[in-house]
Amino acid sequence: MALLTVEPMTGYDLSKLFESSVAYVWHAPDSQIYPELRRMKDCGLLKGEEVAWGQRGKKTQYRITAEGAAAFREWVNAPVEYFRERDPVHLKAAYLEWAEPDSARAHMEAHIEYHALRRKQWQGMIEELRNGTSVMLARRLAVSPKTEHQRTTEYKIFTYEGLIARAETEIAWARHGLELIDSLAKGS
Ligand code: VNL
User: Fold this and answer.
1) Where is the domain boundary, 77, 98, 122?
2) Is residue 69 domain-shared with residue 141, that is, in the same domain?
3) How far is the centre of ligand 1, averaged over its atoms, from the C-alpha of 137 (Å)?
């Protein structure tokens, strides 16, 4: 819906744009996006219009309705629901006394590698947002007043900064884990 506040799009366009923007914050597969678009259309949050596609094909283009925009605004103002953690790495960490030191180390190394990759991707997203090469942001700014550009951009940067800080904490934790595994292995 956030993307459809910018302009009407087909499910395909939306999925591609989503992949290059919101997906870095909220993972959702196409298998969830397409049915959700139909569901939102059925409950009046979106309007579907048949548009020509290629030579003789047709596609549904989705447009946010006034009701949809109101629901989006309501969602952004509503408090977030928190869920208790279910993190397999931390669960395993609690029982590493059962693990071979080599597999314990491998868990920590994989954790570092994963979060270093995510950090790099999020740093790249901040770069895009700052230097004007974010396709999605460019489209959003193109249809919004200049006075809104800074607010619109800064909140997206803020989002990725939070994710980067979290990745750094995970990396530091796993590095500490490697030291701990070594020192506890020596003791045995
Ligand atoms: C948007 C643009 C969102 C770039 C993004 O991630 C992004 C947007 C949440 O305009 O909706 O990286």
Assistant:
1) 77
2) no
3) 6
Q: Measure the CA–CA gap between 43 and 63, rounded to whole angstroms.
A: 13
Q: Which of ligand 1's atoms lies nearest the C-alpha of 20?
A: 12
2-31 pLDDT per residue, tens? 999 999 999 999 999 999 999 999 999 999
Here the CATH number for the domain that contains residue 10 is 1.10.10.10
Determine the length of the chain.
188
Q: Is residue 82 part of a domain?
A: no
Kindly indicate the confidence band of residue 186, based on its pLDDT and cuts at 50, 70 and 90: confident
Ligand 1 atom closest to Cα of residue 159: 9
Q: Which domain holds residue 133?
A: 88-187
Residue whose Cα lies nearest atom 10 of ligand 1: it is 137
Protein residues whose CB sits closer than 6 Å to any atom of ligand 1:
2-3, 21-22, 25, 125, 134, 136-137, 140, 156, 159
Contacts of 103-107 with C-beta under 8 Å, sequence gap 24+, read: 104/177, 104/181, 105/178, 105/181, 107/177
Q: Which of 44, 77, 110 is the last residue in one of the domains?
A: 77
Question: 101 C-alpha to center of ligand 1: Å?
Answer: 41
Query: Do 93 and 142 have their domain in common?
Result: yes
Residue 61's DSSP bridge partners are: 10, 49
Q: What is the pLDDT of residues 114-134, one digit of tens each?
A: 999 999 999 999 999 999 999
Query: Whole-model pTM?
Result: 0.95
